[in-house]
Amino acid sequence: MPENCESLPPLNRPVAPRAFRRAFYDEMLPLEIPTIETRLESLESRIQKALQRVRRQRSEITLVAVSKKFSADHIREAYGVGLREFGENYVQEFAEKRPQLTGLTEARFHLIGHLQANKTRIAADLFEVVQTVDSPKLLQRLDAAAAAKGVTLEALLEIKLSDEVSKSGAAPEDIAALLDAAGACPHIQLSGLMTMPPWSEDPEQSRPYFQRLAALAAQYKLPKLSMGMSGDFEVAIEEGATIIRVGTALFGARPKPQPGDPVLPA
Q1: Which of 248, 253, 242 is nearest to 47 (CA)?
Q2: I need a labelling partner for 90 at 20 to 30 A (CA). Which of 12, 114, 120, 163 fits?
């Protein structure tokens, strides 16, 4: 036996409990890589908690998975875990992905980005819902495109409630005229209002905008409210949202643009 054996620490020293060790490693090391399935589970938990606070039902909320900048494979993976409603911002980007999405028979695709008047025919071919209608001209062109295709297109009015120059949308005082214009468009089903408040790290900053949109929807008797994204959808649910648009919380951070990537028009 070595002479210094007595100075060695005992081998039967206490060992941290397994639960403690597991918690330590879960916190310090990325043992599990998030997947669309685990992100969806986490998101659904957040949705349920928000609904419980205001005594609403899950059936009252449509979750639109915002897939802009993600590939058709990501959309197929999301469809495989049960998602059926998808949101895209750019007509041209989705036109390139759409041929790769055959077979997703239950999927519905929403345009949630600004729509140029000269893209209405393509949009009517690609999307079941256009959430960003903001002028009589767009309504009339979408109606003509839907008529040529022999379909009825669902539409929401995008309402601008902030002073941000970068934001699109109709003014609240234009809603009545837009409803009149929609009444003359037999191939447009106008179902509600949509808005996007100024970005903030504090979701409570979005609440006044959501409250205002809900009041406008009630005033004009429109049933659908599209409001709330990854950072503030709980507040939106509390204020009456029926559609939430969630991207990052489902798909993770969007791929960063690379040098040479094309700049896509709306």
Answers
A1: 242
A2: 163
Q: Which residues touch 192 (CB under 8 Å, ≥6 apart)? A: 156, 157, 217, 222, 223, 224, 225, 226, 242, 243
Cα(210)–Cα(194) distance, integer angstroms: 10
- Does residue 114 lie in a domain region? yes
Where do the H-state alpha helices sit in 150-253? 175-183, 207-219, 233-238, 248-251
- How far apart are the C-alpha atoms of 145 and 138, rounded to whole Å? 10
pLDDT digits (tens, 9 = 90+) for 83-122: 999 999 999 999 999 999 999 999 999 999 999 999 999 9
Neighbours of 222 (CB within 10 A): 18
What is the tally of structural domains in the chain?
1
Residue 248: count other Cβ atoms within 10 Å of its Cβ: 13
Question: Is 164 within a domain?
Answer: yes
The pTM of the full predicted model, rounded to 2 decimals, is 0.84
Report, in angstroms and rounded to the nearest whole number, the Rg of the chain calculated over CA atoms: 24
What is the domain extent for residue 101?
Answer: 35-250
